[in-house]
Design brief:
The protein is mostly helical. The chain has one domain. It contains eight helices and no strands. α1 packs across α2 and α2 packs across α7. It starts with a helix and ends with a helix. The relative contact order is 0.10.
Length: 132
């Protein structure tokens, strides 16, 4: 969902661009450019959701790998899966149309920047709030 702040910001940017280049400016062209920017905001939201989905997948894989350790501790055998089993995340993952859109951009996190997902997870995992 697009927030009102983003809409106001994009409208002001579009108006500025329209009035700055008045000589070839056309209302239809300005409107088309503004709608393009709104679509980019929606794409940004999908990228953020894809990061969250990639983070949950990595967390689930990490916790399952901990169960397979040779000298697993109690914490490894019975991990805290609240983050993975979060109802909001489960609702996002259950939405098939959203997941199709997320699958298109999910390659960002699995190709080059997968290390980024690991680093974010490690930071979250070390926080006391995650344990709570």
């Amino acid at each position: 969902m697009i927030s009102r702040r983003h809409i106001r910001l994009k409208v002001m940017q579009s108006l500025y661009a329209f009035f700055s280049f008045k000589e070839d400016g056309d209302i239809a062209k300005a409107e088309k450019e503004m709608l393009k920017q709104f679509n980019e905001i929606v794409q940004l939201h999908i990228v953020i959701i894809s990061l969250l989905v990639a983070l949950v997948r990595y967390t689930d894989d990490f916790l399952e790998a901990g169960k397979k350790k040779h000298l697993a501790q109690e914490k490894d055998l019975n991990p805290n899966k609240r983050f993975v089993d979060n109802s909001a995340i489960q609702m996002l993952r259950a939405d098939e149309t959203l997941m199709k859109k997320v699958a298109k951009v999910a390659r960002i996190w699995t190709k080059d920047d997968y290390d980024l997902v690991r680093k974010i997870f490690k930071n979250i995992y070390m926080i006391d709030l995650y344990a709570d």
